[in-house]
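A reminder from the course coordinator: this example appears on the midterm review sheet, so study it carefully.

Given structure:
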């Protein structure tokens, strides 16, 4: 479990993610925790982030980095056809400049093995399970309604998420920003 928040603001794409990596045995008992980077800058125009299965997400990000000079459409095809085994409830977010120069987010989930391209959303949050995701979205939107910036809302939502699920989500986070 992780949380990744992507925002579009003032011709900028921002992606935030917590840093906790959890190792569990087959019974789901915590073995140890570590820190990991869950978001990556693929190019001057493209960022990505992942939740869930870290080995799957890092392998996919590594493959995308190898093809970082490709168009957004081509990167999305790589995501949708990427093989390998993964745990349930893993997600992958791609954000940046689409083929036509417009800012976009693409969210892919392993649960239904498909993604959605979105040009109209100013923020995208990925975490699981759905009840937890809904709580984080509500918290984020409440902050926005109270005058917080996207950046402030993302940071506070990660802190909120870490208080709700401290075993899986840390207050420590990474943030990448692309100004277009």
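Designed residues:
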């Amino acid at each position: 479990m992780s949380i990744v928040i992507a925002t579009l603001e003032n011709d900028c794409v921002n992606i935030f993610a917590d840093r906790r990596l959890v190792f569990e045995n087959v019974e789901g008992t915590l073995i140890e925790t570590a820190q990991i980077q869950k978001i990556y800058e693929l190019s001057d125009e493209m960022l990505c982030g992942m939740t869930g299965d870290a080995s799957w997400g890092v392998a996919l990000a590594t493959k995308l980095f190898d093809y970082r000079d490709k168009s957004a459409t081509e990167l999305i095809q790589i995501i949708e056809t990427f093989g390998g085994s993964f745990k349930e409830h893993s997600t992958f977010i791609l954000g940046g400049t689409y083929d036509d120069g417009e800012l976009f987010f693409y969210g892919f989930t392993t649960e239904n093995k498909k993604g959605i391209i979105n040009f109209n959303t100013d923020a995208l949050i990925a975490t699981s399970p759905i009840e937890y995701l809904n709580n984080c979205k509500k918290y984020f939107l409440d902050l926005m309604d109270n005058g917080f910036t996207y950046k402030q809302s993302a940071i506070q939502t990660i802190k909120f998420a870490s208080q709700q699920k401290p075993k899986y989500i840390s207050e420590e986070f990474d943030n990448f920003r692309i100004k277009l």
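The two ends are 31 Å apart (CA to CA). The chain is about 30% helix and 35% strand.
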